[in-house]
Amino acid sequence: MAIDARVLLASLLRGDGRATALRQAWQAGRIQPLVSPAMAQHLMHGLAYPGFGLNAAQQQELLADFLPYAEVLRPVSKPAPAALGAPAWSALELAVAGQAGLLVSDDPALQAWLKRSRSAMARAVCELRTSDALLADFC
């Protein structure tokens, strides 16, 4: 399963039931998320955002709540289409390279791009679900 960086960040940073349910799902082995170097970079960059007020040790602790449970892949990276941001594109590349059965993203631009795109990558992508739809299975 590929999970976009924004969904991962929300699940690492928030303490509500939904975020906890997703963390517990990967920690219990009910899901195995994929991670790439690009995705890890997006996570590190997001955790370092000054508005979160996390020091380096806190950032590392949050990464340690995710990275040991993820399968590492190194997809060949291509430039993102103008309509998509780098984090969404990284998640899409990861889903395709890992032949994931599921891509979890709340990014409306990614959802729209997949619906209208004629690219081979869009046709190869697995099922796209929002985090709400995924969490409905765990809550």
Automatic annotation (TrEMBL):
Q: Which domain of life is it from?
A: Bacteria
Task: Pinpoint the PIN domain residues.
Answer: 3-107
Protein's name according to its UniProt entry: PIN domain-containing protein
One Pfam short name: PIN_3
